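Recall from the previous lesson that a structure prediction takes nothing but the amino acid sequence as input. Here we apply that procedure to Periplasmic nitrate reductase, electron transfer subunit from Gynuella sunshinyii YC6258. The sequence below is the only information supplied.
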Amino acid sequence: MKKLIVLVMAFVSVFLLADNQLANLRGDTPLDAEAEPPKMQAVENNDLKRERAYPQQAPTIPHDISGYQVDLNFNRCLACHSRKKADEAQAPMVSITHYMNREGQFLVDVSPRRFFCTQCHVTQQEVNPLIENTFVDMDTLVKGEE
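The prediction returns the following tokens.
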């Protein structure tokens, strides 16, 4: 029981602000009042490849995908990123691992288990973090720098 309490206290202390208030998305809005939601920021649309923070991280999507159809019938992402279309579209081809089934056999088309791109890949927005973040990427961590 003591270990659980220490763990919870450590977790909560990460989210405490300088004035010992618990950081939250409501800000100063009282619990009995409706908070004004922040305005939606524009999706980053610069087609610049972002660095990955850890090995095997799915690359982020560097362009707007609003209105893209990705369902059982069609995947708009593959119109540019499939093996057949990547050169023509001058887009990076999806990883060869996306063409493998669970047994490691290569398929002609993208594996059904990798068909829904937004399960792993997300667009980005240029916004300030809601809570201070002390995340250290894998390369920095391995080098011992902080």
